[in-house]
Amino acid sequence: MKIIQAIKKANAPFVFKGCSSGKHLKNPLVLVFGNRYMLETNSIYEEVKELFTDAHVVFGSTSGEIMDDTVLDGTIVLTAIEFEKSSILVHRSNVGEHNNNDENLGQHLMAQFPKEDLKHLFIISEGSTVNGSALINGLEKHKHSMISLSGGLCGDDDRFERTLVSYNENPKEGEIVAIGFYGSSLEITSANFGGWTPFGPERIITKAQDNILYELDGKPALDLYKNYLGEKAKELPKSALLYPLSVRTSEESEPLVRTILNIDNKENAMILAGDVPIGSKVQLMMSSVDDIASGAYSAAELAMKGRNKNPEIALLISCIGRKLVMDQRTEEEIEEVKSVIGNSTVITGFYSYGEMAPFQGQDQCKLHNQTMTLTLFSE
Question: How many Cβ atoms are within 10 Å of 45's Cβ, its own excluded?
């Protein structure tokens, strides 16, 4: 596996790290994560294509870019990977092509990939309107249990205006890109961990539809949530990132963390990143800088557990809510990850509106919020 990285700042060309260009790589996968405004430049795809003429180029907008142990804002980070013993296949689709039925979209994408030798599917999804839970349900419906799945929902800082994704074209809205990794030599592991603590009374979801929450204990959910936030309610939906919801669908199930992506004052409802089934138990959550850093360390330990080889590259997807809590200390969670996976592993990734990974010891992928998610690759 050959890996090179580059960074682009506003009104400047890409600057490569440790080399002068990427033209020596053959058919690389080029992951381009960046600030939404910078990705809206009409020439961005051509600019990357000039650097890598025969590349598979995947773009995704972010709420912060990750390169090595550094967290950046207002930049574009590029990571190009040439696989020496394995291969990739990339497919894309758009929510508008499936009448906004995200589960059907997931099924359609999964059907595009031949199953023989498919080890892993990595998803880079638009994050503004997609129901991540439904998308994953569609992907999982016909996925063999031996095929692992991870990824994330793209971000737009804390604006929640629009997110951009694309494959081999300029980034645009509504896109979901799936990257399939093939080959017996590949070792790919993924894991996630949060670090958030529930507080306050536990309430029952009494009215909801998919990812829209209407009522808790028979009362308007948004009114209750605003009462808890107090003065911070004026800053919604941004302030909701500091107080996500813990959702437990049954006594036996692992609790899922759900971020509030938007609010509907007319319907007195909250729009979440994933499904919130009726009958589920809900609590507010909060966290501290130290808890989030510790959670990142735990996520890295889980991802490394049982591996045969040291990872050559790590794709990190962490939540915008964690970044807001960490503030000036955001890089500490990346440093915690690096202390576990080692200095020789190339690190890239972004801050997101949602993360995709299975719980430890489970095969089926889930949508998470407010977690650090790692996907580790080696050949």
Answer: 19
So what's the pLDDT on residue 145? 80
Instruction: Quote the domain boundaries for residue 372.
Output: 2-193+291-378
pLDDT (average), residues 155-180: 96
Per-residue model confidence (pLDDT) at position 68: 96
User: 14-23: long-range contacts (C-beta < 8 A, 24 or more apart)?
Assistant: 14/47, 14/48, 14/51, 14/76, 14/78, 17/67, 21/51, 22/51, 22/52, 22/80, 23/51, 23/52, 23/53
The pairing of strands 175-182 and 118-125 is antiparallel
The amino acid occupying position 227 is N
144 has pLDDT over 90: no
Reported pTM? 0.92
Inform me whether the pLDDT recorded for 129 exceeds 90.
no
Domain count, the chain: 2
Residues 267 and 282 in one domain: yes
* Residue 9, token pair as written in the block: 């700042």
- The Cα 317–Cα 321 span in angstroms is 12
Task: Tell whether 144 and 277 lie within a shared domain.
Answer: no
Task: Based on the fold, state whether residues 253 and 281 are members of the same structural domain.
Answer: yes
CA distance to 57, 245, 343, per residue, from 63 (Å): 20, 20, 25
**Do 177 and 204 belong to one domain?**
no
Q: For the segment 255-309, what is each residue's pLDDT rounded down to a tens digit?
A: 889 988 889 999 999 999 889 999 999 999 999 999 999 999 999 999 999 999 9
Same domain, 126 and 183: yes
Is pLDDT above 80 for 10? yes
Question: In the listed set 286, 308, 336, which residue is the last one of a domain according to the structure?
Answer: 286
